[in-house]
What does this fold into?
Amino acid sequence: MDITVIGGGLAGVEAAHQITRMGGQATLLEMRPGAGTPAHRTSHLAELVCSNSLKSLDLHNAHGLLKEELRRMGSVIMDAADGTAIPGGKALVVDRDRFAARLTQTVENDPGIRLVREEALRIPEEGIVVVASGPLTSEALAEELRALTGADNLAFFDAISPIVDAASIDHGKAFYASRYMKGEAGDYLNCPLTREEYDLFHEALVSAERVDLREFEKTSYFEGCLPVEVLAERGRKTLAFGPMKPVGLTDPRDGKRPYAVVQLRKENASGTMLNLVGFQTKMKYAEQERVFRMIPALKNAVFLRYGSIHRNTYINAPLCLNDRLELKADRRVLFAGQITGVEGYMESTAMGLAAGISAFMSATGREFCPPPPVTCIGALIRYLTTENRNFQPMNINFGLIEGYSKKNKEATVDRALQEIEKWKNSFK
Ligand SMILES: Cc1cc2nc3c(=O)[nH]c(=O)nc-3n(C[C@H](O)[C@H](O)[C@H](O)COP(=O)(O)OP(=O)(O)OC[C@H]3O[C@@H](n4cnc5c(N)ncnc54)[C@H](O)[C@@H]3O)c2cc1C
It folds into this structure.
């Protein structure tokens, strides 16, 4: 049976490759060069739209571990990345033109893949379909996806706040409480600031270096998700009356209401990852570390994800997808890549790999089981498909991996790779 894959980016190429590697046939629809996106510049498949770094190679870094899992699963994207690498220290940096040209050629030479240079305006009415049209999905298809998933379940912008490792917070300088004691006391970890600390923090925020906006990103932000530094520019007290307001909170250490607070909310069920609520930002990554570490409880914070705001089409995966990456409302349609709500080149590749295998299993009447959440791939799928009222796109980090703690990194890596080998063998 022929499986349709929409989008010849990192995820779509990986999905099509996995389908043919397992013995299936795929039709890969790519709209470029006939139609373009605001970020792609060439007609190559798997074009890297921004940095040519695929991040860390170190196995003791979650990005490095994810790459190794992909390698072991026979990822065509990893093969091309390793084959076109250029010196980049501890990171895997590729020659972007050779990388994309090599993958384009691999697809064109694969007898199992029919490459069609055409925009998918609709989801085909029959057969299994993998949607891998990425963060810049064409307008017509986005409309179709809105109808399919429900208008509220397709987002066009990311406004993400930084996430810190809970173990790196100075808990002596923070306290758990909900405003006016509503909800569970453990819902929010509050990091108080004195007036002097707040003034210094405010000054640092307004003067911090920011990421330049691309032309197509120069859209006015929604009032509800303004970058925190833009809010700060509106006046010295704007944050103290906005996301940093202390109303309804009493610091148990002195029984007083703090001058201002930064509230942290659990990002995963185990509470190992905490989100700085309302702190979406366009500050450069190094600046985020410098400025946010001025919050006393976050002096030594380890950042698992940085904040950002950018154009991004993605679905509300916890509501829409099952753990086979199929749309709950129509199991014939699967999602892959950044549009599932993962963030990053390798994460998108991983969701292409899993969706490709899942689609093939479904086409051949077999049940797909994702790898366990002790692996990076399994942890990403679990994140996407676990109930989450505040669902936001996520990159891979150790906080997502089941059973991880700082002290058992070595064991976490060994277990993840053992489980990936088992998963690979389960398809033989
Ligand atoms: C501007 C920008 C910069 C980014 N920079 C980085 C970065 O530096 N590092 C990082 O790790 N991640 C980055 N990302 C996030 C993400 O990792 C990349 O976007 C990644 O390419 C996603 O892979 P994908 O396969 O899901 O989508 P893509 O690689 O975008 O592939 C989707 C493909 O689908 C095609 N398509 C779209 N609609 C249709 C349609 N209707 N019919 C047929 N084809 C269609 C597109 O032309 C494209 O080729 C960036 C994202 C954006 C938007």
Notes: The chain has a mean pLDDT of 93. Residues 6-12, 29-32, 37, 39-40, 49-51, 119-120, 132-138, 141, 311, 337-339, 344-345, 348 surround flavin-adenine dinucleotide (CB under 6 Å).
